Amino acid sequence: MEYKSDIRNLLKDSKCIDFATLITSIIHLYGENSKIDASVLEDILINMLSEDGYNMACFINNTQEAKDKLNWHYDISEGEGYITLK
Question: What is the pTM of this model?
Answer without folding.
Answer: 0.93
